[in-house]
Amino acid sequence: MIYHLLYPLGSDFIVFNVFRYITFRSVYALLTALVVSIVFGPRFIAWLNRLKCGQYIREDVPTHNGKAGTPTMGGLLIAVSLLSSVLLWGDLTNVYLWLTIFVFVGFGLVGFWDDFLKVVKKKNQGISAGGKLLGQTVVALGAISLLLLQPAYSTILYFPFIKMLQPDLLWFYIPFAVLVMIGSSNGVNLTDGLDGLAIGPLIVAGACFGIFVYVAGHVHIAKYLQVAYVPGVGEVSVFCAALVGAGLGFLWFNAYPAQVFMGDVGSLSLGGVLGFIAVLAKQELLLLLVGGLFVVETLSVILQVGYFKMTGGKRIFRMAPLHHHFELQGVPESKIIVRCWIFSIIMALISLSALKLR
Ligand code: 57M
């Protein structure tokens, strides 16, 4: 909105030309989302408490018993701060920005419905795993189909670090991209089991992909770094910046000991949108590195469940996802969290080096 109101004034007052720049608007999108979430956070948490949106806590990890009653669905605060900031600072004529918003809201609605059943309607299971998957698939399929209608968008898959490998997946690109989005959404959901464990790496990944989409949308930088050029996609940097701001604001309250959890409304929407932004930036495979923590946590569950079934009840880890294994070994929660953040930062830095190492 600010962009549409103030940028046209640039013809009369040169200073307003600054609103043209994605970098300038991204900085203010980050700050706006951060301020909105920090200002409204306490009232929002009090409101969740009044609605009795407390999280049910399983008893098999003893250190979590003290968390009973912590309000969940804090993802709504992330959504409000992120979206208000994007609507304020984004170029609302940009189709990629709207597709990103569509994915964020679509995955968020699936998560909201799950939380609503669990927390408000007190149905312990929420929606079934199949129902959740169906909802995620419908949103992802819709977004990818609309994306492929854009003439500038291609079905080529680019491999990080290997410039020569660029296969065109043609129609296979659709199930591939859908898988990226659903995998990312569920990976974040599995990781969201300790205070700040999911949102920290999401902030890092959001910043990293903000750079990737900016590069992909900039004709000269994309050419210089020899990455795929997708005209117009750079505007999604504003969304990434707002994600970082909203994430930092949420972390303010989710930091150990958490006053609020994000719920599925937060984890599914943020994970899904991260997968979509990786698709937009044509860095789908690099998401495995940027979101390395989510990958490791998911792999720990796959290995644990697979081994359990194969051996008729034996386990590799004390408990999966991996963060529970460390907890049961006696590592303090805050130490696990900060070490996971450090791991995410290292993975993001290695991913950024892929821009140059090709
Ligand atoms: C959701 N949800 C958290 C909170 C958060 C297949 C299996 C591995 C599935 C997995 C599972 O259900 N994962 C998805 C994980 C839950 O957090 C809520 O859920 C939202 C995210 N969807 O926003 O609303 C609990 O996590 C803790 N938490 C925090 N701080 C936070 O900021 O402390 C969350 C956010 C909260 C709170 O305690 O209640 C969760 O962990 O349930 N299942 C599991 O992860 C379970 N693992 C398991 O059963 N392992 C078995 C399997 C693999 C055979 C094994 O290893 O033997 C664990 N879940 C719980 N306790 N609650 C087991 C221990």
Helices and strands in order, then pairings?
Layout: H1 2-6, H2 22-50, H3 75-89, H4 95-120, H5 129-148, H6 173-191, H7 199-216, H8 219-225, H9 236-254, H10 263-280, H11 287-290, H12 292-311, H13 322-328, H14 333-353
Helix pairs in contact: 2-3, 2-9, 3-9, 3-10, 4-5, 4-10, 5-6, 6-10, 6-12, 7-9, 7-10, 7-14
Describe what is shown at a glance.
The chain has helices at 2-6, 22-50, 75-89, 95-120, 129-148, 173-191, 199-216, 219-225, 236-254, 263-280, 287-290, 292-311, 322-328, 333-353. It has 358 residues and is mainly α.
Question: Could you explain how this protein is built, in words?
Answer:
The protein is mainly alpha-helical and 358 residues long. Helices cover 64% and strands 0% of the residues. The chain contains 14 helices and no strands. It has helices spanning 2-6, 22-50, 75-89, 95-120, 129-148, 173-191, 199-216, 219-225, 236-254, 263-280, 287-290, 292-311, 322-328, 333-353. Helix 6 crosses helix 12 and helix 7 (199-216) runs parallel beside helix 10 (263-280). The protein is globular, with a radius of gyration of 20 Å. The model has no long low-confidence stretch (mean pLDDT 94).
